[in-house]
Amino acid sequence: MNLVDVIIPTYKPDNRFLTSIKRLLAQSVKPGKIIIINTDKSIWDKSGIEENIRELFYGSEVNLYIEHILKSDFDHGATRNLGVSKSDAKYFICMTQDAVCFDKETVKYLLRGMDNSIKLAYARQVPDKRANKIEKFTREFNYPIESMIKSFNERQTLGIKTYFASNVCAAYERETFDALGGFDTGEILNEDMLFAYKLIEHGYFIKYEAWAKVIHSHNYSGITQFKRNFDIGVSQASNPKIFKNIKSESEGKKLVLKTLKYLLATHSYISIIRLIYISGCKYIGFFMGRNFKKLPKGMVRAFSMNKGFWR
């Protein structure tokens, strides 16, 4: 049995994904297997990426597994569960294709905090060098330099952040994962947060491991932020048991105010205009998503980032 495997869903993987694989193969604690669940084999074949990937694995003790699924079959939870089913390791790490290990110790640091109570550890996301000022500050706000252990007892102080655990890069203990039913399926997104909720509610702990770092950031446009936050709103409206009494708006306001303060202090006045625009797009998208049941179906699909979800 391997100690740890890595599971990565892919869609139109590019050179950044190859860099991610290279960094994973260079880890001080190497995964036994890297499992790729790719959406749409036709695009994969046209890109010729498989030859480049297999070349990276040549001579490596790390095994490679690739499985292709139809675009119509993609589901954030089910696709990852499929990847987990191909692993027999004690732990597994879920990553996204655009996350790149910061150094050779990412896997080691993720696993070092796992014990009888901690069943999930997620990594710190540091911004890419191309990230704009707002995105850099957002990453620092959501992924601070101090590690943290979260449990049911933190609900009153942390609010919705109690359940925050991004599987952009996160390690899970397999036995408990299976016992709790894995990732929820049929969700538009937030499968990582919904599983974190199950862990917390069953008395387990989650660790934010700041020493485990991946490079990951996005310079999203206002329209993209609107669509992403629309889907977040849909997710919350679809899971009232979790989100009814725990509001995320206050956390969003705190981020906006702290970002504004930072931009003023650094005299980044053009970025302040962008912050107002982006924040407006986020809030409107989230508000519309929370009320998606009142909207025409065509509008819902147009507003969503994950249009395939509405088939």
Structural class: alpha/beta
* Quaternary state of the chains: single chain
CATH architecture of the largest domain: Alpha-Beta Complex
Order of helices and strands: EHEHHEHEEHEHEHEHHEHHHHH
**Total helical segments:** 14
Question: The CATH topology of the largest domain is what?
Answer: Spore Coat Polysaccharide Biosynthesis Protein SpsA, Chain A
Q: Kindly report the name of the CATH homologous superfamily of the largest domain.
A: Spore Coat Polysaccharide Biosynthesis Protein SpsA, Chain A
Unreliable segments (pLDDT under 50, ≥5 consecutive)?
none
Radius of gyration: 19 Å
Tally the structural domains.
Answer: 2
Protein name: Glycosyltransferase, group 2 family protein
InterPro entries: Glyco_trans_2-like (IPR001173), Glycosyltransf_2 (IPR050834), Nucleotide-diphossugar_trans (IPR029044)
EC number: 2.4.-.-
Domain Glycosyltransferase 2-like: 6-180
Provide a descriptive summary of the structure in words.
The chain is 46% helix and 18% strand. It has 311 residues and is an alpha/beta fold. The chain folds into two domains: 4-133 and 142-215, Spore Coat Polysaccharide Biosynthesis Protein SpsA, Chain A (Alpha-Beta Complex), CATH 3.90.550; 222-303. β1, α1 and β2 form a beta-alpha-beta unit. It starts with a strand and ends in an 8-residue tail after the last helix. Its EC number is 2.4.-.-.
